Amino acid sequence: MKKAVRILFAIVVLGYAVLLIPDSEPIVPITDLTESHKKAFSWNQNEFWTELEKQYVASKDSGCEETRCSADSLMMLARKAIAYIRDNRLEPGNPIFRQLENLIFGIGSLTAPCHERVSTFKEIVEKSRKAVKRQSEHWDVSKEEVRETLYRLLYGSRGAMEEVLLHVPASSSSDPLALGTDEPSQTPYASILGAKIHSGDILVSRGGAPTSALIARGNDFPGNFSHVALVHVDPATHVVSIIESHIERGVAISTPEEYLNDTKLRVMVLRLRNDLAQLQADSMLPHKAAELTLKKAREKHIPYDFSMDFQNSDKWFCSEVASFAYKNLGVQLWMGLSHVSSPGLRIWLACFGVEHFETQEPSDLEYDPQLRVVAEWRDPEQLRKDHYDNAVTEAMLEGAEAGDRLTYAWYMLPVARTMKAYSVLLNLVGSPGPVPEGMSATAALKNKYYSNKHEAIKRELARLAEEFTRKKGYAAPYWGLLQMARVAKQTIETR
Fold this sequence. Notes:
Helix 3 (64-87) runs antiparallel to helix 4 (95-111). 52% of the residues lie in helices and 11% in strands. The longest helix is centred in the last third of the chain and has 32 residues, at 441-472. The protein has helices spanning 2-19, 46-62, 64-87, 95-111, 118-135, 144-165, 210-217, 256-261, 277-281, 285-299, 318-328, 343-351, 380-401, 413-428, 441-472, 478-494; strands at 177-179, 189-192, 195-198, 202-206, 227-233, 240-246, 250-254, 266-272, 338-339, 358-359, 371-378.
C-alpha cells in the first residue's frame, strides 16, 4: 500500500514538474517597423493642456459673467470655421482644421465651469464632427495626414466634450443619449434606449475590463472603443438580434438586454451612408449583411480569433462580425487599417495570441468615411471609469516600451494547464470553459497578471484623484489623471 502511495506521489510530482515547463516566447514580427508611415500618434501638447487647465481655473474663480465675452467670441469663430469647412472642399492639411481643434479645446475650458454653456458647446462639437466627416468623404483615409486630421478632430472633440461633462453638475449632462446624423435607411428598425436602430447598423462599444481598455488604447491611434457588434432586426416581428464575438465564447447572438447587461462604458451607433453607390443599387444591403452574419452565426460555432487576422473567416474577432458580411456584399469597411508599431506593445499583445499588427481596431471604424454616427450613449459616471482605465493603461504601456514584461505566478502554470484541458472538454460539447477557446494557459495567467496590476494601479489612481479634488476643488482633467497614473504605477511597483 505504501509503495502504491509513493508511486502515485511520484507520478503527481513528475506530472506537476512536466506541467511547469514554460511555453516558448511568442515570435513578434518587426520587419515592418522601419516603414516611415507607421508610428504612434502623440499630441505633444503638455504646455497647451496646462494652459487650458489654468484657463478653466481662472474662469471658475472669476465667474461665468466675466468670461462670457471670451466664450462668445470663441464660439463665433468656431461657427465660422465649421461653416467654412462645411461649404468648401478642403485638403486634410488645411490650417482651418487645426484652428477649429484649438477653438473647441478653448471653448471647452470656458464651458466646464459654466453649465449654462453646455448645450451650446454640444451643438458646436456635433456640427464640427459632421462637417469634418463629410470632408473626409473625398480623402484617402489610408494616408497618415488624413488619419491624423480625422483623429485630432473626431477623437479630440469627443475628449473636449467629455472633460466638460465630467466637470459640470449632473443635472446639466443628465441625458446620456447624444443623437448624431439621422441617416436615412430602408431596413427594418426598432427602438433601443430612445434611439431608432436599423438592421445592419453597427454598435461600437467600450467594455469595463482592463483588457477592454488595452484593446481601445493599444494601437498607434489610441481610441475610445473596444468592441464591435452588428444589429439584425427581423422585418416581420421587429425582434432585435445583436451578433458579436466574445473572447470567452466566440461568436454569439444576444438580445439588446443581454448586450447592455454586459458592462458598457459607452456605445456608439454607426450606419452606412445612404448615398453610397452600393446602397443606391440596393437599399436593403445593410439588412442583407445582417441576415448573412446571423445565418453564419447560427450555422456553426465560430471561435474568437486571438491572432486578429481579419482575412481568416474561420475565426472572428469582434470587428470581423461587421466586416465579413459587408465585404461579401461589396462594401469594404475599415478603409484605414490600424497599426501597432510600438515594440513593447507588440510583445505584450503577442503574449495574448495576437499575430497581426495591422488590423481592424474597433475605434477606427468611426473614421471610416462610409459611415455616419447616428447616436452615442455616455454616462458621466461611466466616463469617469473609462478615463481612469485609459490613464492606467497608457501608464502601463509606457512601461512596456521601457522594458516592463507581462509575467505570471510560475507555480500556477500546472493548475492553469489543467483548467485549459478541462476547458477543451467543455468546448467540445459547446460550452465555454474557464480558459477561453484559443487562449493558452500561459496567456490566461499573463492576462490575470495584467488585470490584477491594472486594478491595483487604478485603485491607487482613484485615491490620488480624490485627494486632488479635495485640495483643488475640481476634478483632475485627463492629462492630470495620466500623470497621477504614472505615480500610482510607481507606487504599486515599489510596495
